[in-house]
Amino acid sequence: MASGFWVVKLTDRACLISAFITIWTLRVEADAFWAEEGAIYQRMIDNALYGFTRIPKLAGDLEHLDVFEAGEPEHPGKPSVLGRRSYIDDILVPADNLDQLCDRVEDLLEACDKWNLSISVVKSFWGMPKVEYLGHKVSHDGLEANPKDLSALTDLEFPGTLHYAIYASTLNPENDDLADLDLRWIHAHRSFEVLKEKIAKTPILRHFDPDQQAVVVVYASDWAISGALMQEYDQVYYPVMFASRTLKSNELNYGITEKEVLTLLRVLDLNYNTLVGRPIRDTPHWLGYLDPAHYKDA
């Protein structure tokens, strides 16, 4: 995305604004505008999907709408024709049944026709029970890891060094047999295969349900923090997303409670658009014992 460019038609007024002087003459780019920022293209797609088409037009403008202006919705409060936002030009059309899918695809095609946007047939897939989207396999069940991305791990050969063990120090007891590595020990090979299998079998992430309460589970170790956003179904917690990071040098001296607060803040930050205005439940339930004055900035 950092090196990508998109070609979008300009209105006559926008052409005059984008004119620049060269050593030969005044140059006006009337055919196309080269946009380098992904945010500009994201706004263009949002304008099309949400119907932001009430844009004042000046005399002499081209017949195409200027998608770079913010615009106003034709019908305030109307959701996206897809029911959600797209990520730049990667558009996912989810549906609960075939009729809903056909209706949303028809609305999408009408929006593209209205805004003079084209869809690559070669890069598109229609009516699929499971599709690849933003590095994941997406289906009605949720998000799961792409097998192609896991092949580098599952095809990993038995190591000839012990340095990798520090990155999997929490996976015991399989990791214990690898501490004193000896190629003659069959237990080391077996533990290595089990270790790869555990990492490769990542759980399927459920789609977030706005009608279910959000539960944040936090964990902190001596050098890293991790957390998960979950939702409960039939007394079972299903993960919606995971988040983790290593601690900075000044954070290594924090107590366990402070580290878990950092974990909670990271989960809330990464899921702001999902959780804003919604009640959440933390696990373990220690937030009620914290001094609000001490953490008022957080």
From TrEMBL:
Q: Which GO terms describe its molecular function?
A: RNA-directed DNA polymerase activity
Q: Where is the signal peptide?
A: none
InterPro entries the record matches: DNA/RNA_pol_sf, Rev_trsase/Diguanyl_cyclase, RT_RNaseH_2, Viral_Replic_Matur_Polypro
Keywords tagged on the record: Nucleotidyltransferase, RNA-directed DNA polymerase, Transferase
Query: For the Reverse transcriptase/retrotransposon-derived protein RNase H-like domain, which residue ranges apply?
Result: 189-280
PANTHER family assigned? POL PROTEIN, RIBONUCLEASE H
- Listed name of the protein: Reverse transcriptase
Organism field: Phytophthora megakarya
Q: What is the lineage of its organism?
A: Eukaryota, Sar, Stramenopiles, Oomycota, Peronosporomycetes
